[in-house]
């Protein structure tokens, strides 16, 4: 008689064999996953909140694995141990056992209550906002089909002269010092973004809700921020059609407040190494607090299905040390349009380039309606796509690019954009002032930190 | 009942094919309707599986074979078909076929509504299928169809076409079929039970039918409301409900949708639980351990199922997290009770393992994984990490797809002899079991691991993150192994229909009333009924004598006197407890 058959004859021996077989099965599975390079735990977190989540995960995992092994062994045990030996065999008809039933109701109850409490503490921990006197970096995240924009703000140095209503149709606002605004500058009041389209005297005309944020009232005296698009791009992490993926740059060690919004449909801000995600819901602005602990580039991806190119909504979180972040920030903030003196009159007074055909006002509208700004930036200054402001490419070549695009651009058939439309956009692009060269400006970081949060 | 014996006719013997077709098209017999549900749902299930193979082929390598649009359409229809056209109606198939037999009823309470329910279901399914033919193709917003991507809001880059409307209307119809069915199940169980069949003597499958019926009745109208609002949003009101640009609330849809779709998870899994309970009862020769606690656990799961819907929305930022986390954790308790009761039923049992029993044991082993991975999602912070990754995909496939499917396959092998008078082939059955068991674990365990690594769902190509290729390839291999298993099953069905070994009235030594009549049963179901003194009337008949002296053997399960005196006045108690 072979050893395993001998072992099978005693109850303890059978249990040993079953446990052994189950153990071997688990080992084989572990080996298989090891070979396949699989992760058997959440990835290492690069944020304080992520570390807390990962710790909780291991608590749940430990309990889960324990319960899994115990119950699967029980199942295998009853399957292998209790077999019908003869046709007229009749087993015990016991159908109740109070102690056992109390135990297998009570123990799971205790486990889930403990898990609930532990999870609740971790939840409060990871959702906690920054302390009131703590410096905060604020990034306005905007998801749209199928790209990301990351906006930052610096104080403009003026305040609202009177209240602003909730009505999105209400587009005239009064600033205490309107001379600080320039055409196409994006202003930020609280969480609301507005694009300056004209100024006549003291009255500034804006386009509201340009970043998918909902209009909300603002009281006179509130600080006005100048918002700029801080989205960089990286060539790596490319998908089949996107040449570059957007980068959001943030410092390590400082509390970061991501204000997450959507311009169109649902998206989700998901950086796997933060071990957390938050949906971008149109009509809402949601807050995600993160304190990053490690420098590096962290690949990220939209996690809520958002249509055809959902798979292409990739972005990178670039965490820099605070000094590097500050110099990056100053560089970016400085390259945004500078204040100019005097009135500018909006669309009708925009100077047309010599020889430009087409209607630049219509062109500007089309530029945003078609979503060109998603890739080329609100001033055509270039984001994921190249800079096209004041392009020197001839119009007929531009039309060809619309119809049969080189590189990653979406094709626009004539029934969507006519040649005349393209000429209009072309005309508008010729009027857009190129962003000024990064001027040396004093560090606005301290002011920003004060105003943020 | 015996007076009806003379009415038995041989309806299957009609030589005229057209008469037979007409007979099936116009039948109001719950058994025929159940079998039609079975064929229809089975066919849709194979279609859904074919979709999954397309997806797995696409995901097996980097780069794309099909376009993103096609992929989005396919995964949307995979989910919609599997849930609305396979898992829900296949439960209805067994509930239609077996429940009236189990309670000793002639038919359903409303046979015509029963037929109407089936034909509405088929029409709704046809509408979803036809949406492949319209311009713009099928709905492609996922089976959850979260607005605003389903709407033409002006901001949505590619608003869906008529396929989306067909999806909405189709699912409204499917929901209506469900509601008709649920009313029928409930009234039948409450009013049509045979003398002696008290509520506490109902077989557990009938209990699951009852609780499932309640869940359907209370939750499906909410889904219907959401679908109608969505339809109005798309066709007239211009976003008054779900379009934020017009003052609507996208999260409102999610609340309404999950208020149905979370209970729907239980609508799919509970009948499977009922089937394996009955199967365990038969093949162990043991009473179901803790029968009453099983029923209470069932009811508890049903009730808790109504207050956990928002755990699908933890990352939306619009949910009161602690409440839904607590309620979700609590579901683990009654689920655990059921699990331990099943194991205790096999404990010291006289167990045999035909294919139906194998699938039931497989159900336990896989449902356990589904349950444990559910706890990860209940812990909200961990869910923040895992939501919308393949961990979720693995989790819900382990529970409602794989565990439920194993339960329904157990039901196929178990009731096939009753339905068609022939056994399914056991050898092919075991081959089917092992292929499927290995295949699904290969698919979904690797998906759990991919999810931990942060691989998001609903993405057609993962060029961005190398390192997942091998695991994705394993998953795809698993999908094809499972599909091979299902082909074996399909072959087995047709093989057994033609050449299967003949089965008598009670081939498994069954315990419940459906085995007290011929296989297949006559149109009026029973010529005569045995005395019903417990939830196992046929077991009492077969072994009652021999167990006279066993102090644990109760023939009056459920009555106050534990020694078993008062269970023999069947007719008095039948109507009272309804």
Structural notes for this entry:
The complex is a heterodimer of chains A (453) and B (578). Chain A is of the alpha+beta class and 453 residues long. Chain A has helices at 3-8, 11-35, 48-81, 98-127, 322-335, 360-369, 372-376, 395-403, 419-431, 445-451, and strands spanning 136-144, 147-159, 172-174, 186-189, 192-200, 203-208, 223-229, 232-234, 245-251, 255-262, 267-271, 276-280, 286-291, 296-301, 314-320. In chain A, helix 2 (11-35) packs across helix 3, helix 3 (48-81) packs antiparallel against helix 4 (98-127) and helix 8 crosses helix 9 (419-431). The radius of gyration of chain A is 30 Å and the shape is elongated. The model of chain A is unreliable at 236-243, 339-356 and 434-453 (pLDDT under 50). Chain B is mostly helical and 578 residues long. Chain B contains 16 helices and no strands. The interface between A and B is large, with 99 and 104 residues.
Number of strands of chain B: 0
Oligomeric state, counting identical vs distinct chains: heterodimer
Mean pLDDT of chain B: 90
Mean pLDDT of chain A: 80
The SSE string of chain A, one letter per element, is HHHHEEEEEEEEEEEEEEEHHHHHH
- The gyration radius over C-alpha positions of chain A equals 30 Å
